[in-house]
Amino acid sequence: MSWLNPEDAQWTYVSRRLIPARLISVWVTVAVFIVPFVVVQALVGGWWFVGVIVALVAGLWGTWVVVRQVGAHAWAERDDDLVIKRGRMQRRMTVVPYGRMQYVEVQAGPVARMFGIASIQLHTASPGTDAHISGVPVAQAARLRDRLTTRGEAQLAGL
Fold first, then answer.
1. Is the Cβ–Cβ distance between 27 and 59 less than 8 Å?
2. 58 is a domain residue
3. What pTM was estimated for this model as a whole?
4. FRET pair for 85, CA 20 to 30 Å: which of 27, 38, 46, 51?
5. In a domain, 10, yes or no
């Protein structure tokens, strides 16, 4: 058993639809960097293609990182808490006891809605808690929100 893989955890991985949603922002950023190099080439010539190559390599690196990160993002509902893990190089595990949850927020921006996914943010009394799950299918996010809210209320009531 590893501290990043509790024995009793049944991991649910985020949707692979999160990959193209995140890749849109990666490649829009790459395009923002490429456009000035093309404009400089049109105006003065020179070694503009070096900047384009650097931006393209950065975009390919970003693509690889996004695919790896999404594959590592998962959550597990246990009896007393919710466990969230993410990251490949810098692995992070967040454990949120149901009784500490104040409210659960589901949100989806325009790109996420286009891919049918949402993000779930868990709010606790501690401002340092960074418990969020990105890339959850919308219907599953609504069910998860309801389950977490119910379990949190039951824990607070001492049931």
1. yes
2. yes
3. 0.83
4. 27
5. no
Are 58 and 79 in a shared domain?
A: no
> What is the β-pairing status of strands 12-13 and 92-97?
unpaired
SS (HEC) of 74-127: EEEECCCEEEEEECCCCCEEEEEEHHHEEEEEEECCHHHHHHCEEEEEEEECCC
3-state secondary structure of 59: helix
Amino acid in the structure at residue 10: Q
Quickly count: other Cβ atoms within 10 Å of residue 25's Cβ: 12
Q: What is the pLDDT of residues 62-97, one digit of tens each?
A: 999 999 999 999 999 998 899 999 988 898 998 888
Q: What does the alpha-carbon distance between residue 71 and residue 60 come to, in Å, rounded to a whole number?
A: 17
Would residue 136 count as lying in a domain? yes
pLDDT at position 157, please? 64
Range of the domain at 90: 74-157
Q: Are strands 74-77 and 131-137 parallel, antiparallel or unpaired?
A: unpaired
**Residue range 112-123: average pLDDT?**
94
d(CA 121, CA 119) in angstroms, rounded, equals 7
Scored b (16 or more CB within 10 A) or e, 85-111 reads bbeeeeeebbbbebbbbeebebebeee
Do both 40 and 83 map to the same domain?
Answer: no
